[in-house]
Amino acid sequence: MSKNQIGLNKEKSRELAEGLNELLADYMIFYQNTRGFHWNIKGEKFFELHLKFEELYNDLIVKVDEIAERILTLGVTPLHTFADYKKQAKVDVVKDVSDARGTVQAVLDAFKVIIVKQRELLNISGELEDEGTNALMSDYIREQEKLVWMYTAYLN
Fold it and tell me: Which residues contact 103 (CB under 8 A, 6 or more apart)?
């Protein structure tokens, strides 16, 4: 059984990294959607959501970097073109949505896809005994479940 540079099974690490590349694609589409929401939000909730979306996209871009670096740590090259992101992502590209309800619902839809994917990766990293990926996914899930609660409360 061949090990990678951090002592994990090379083949299983590659499989995990491919899943992380799918997650990276989802994050990049989510990031770009959120930038668009920040730029284009309209209506009485403009000031509130303009700031919230800026907060969110700043957090997403940090996670994008962490995921890409984790993929590299596992010995694989991260995706890095928008063509690849669009092909791999399960998060939908959202265009021309500028109202409060529509933008917040799109955020919730993206979180649903991402949290499910992160749970899958958490299971795989647990089986591989990859504590680095495991901790990353666990932290993201905990943070994002709280955000889902908050964005959902906003819609109700």
Answer: 37, 41, 49, 53, 97
46 phi-psi bin (left φ>0, alpha ψ -120 to 50, beta other): alpha
6 part of a folded domain: no
Containing structural domain, residue 111:
11-155
- Residue 27 domain-assigned (yes or no): yes
CATH code at 33? 1.20.1260.10
Write out pLDDT tens, residues 68-116. Answer: 999 999 999 999 999 999 999 999 999 999 999 999 999 999 999 999 9
pTM of the predicted structure, to 2 decimals: 0.96
- Lookup: tokens for 84: 């690849």
79 DSSP 8-state letter? P
Q: What share of the chain is helix, strand, coil (3-state, %, to 5)?
A: 75, 0, 20
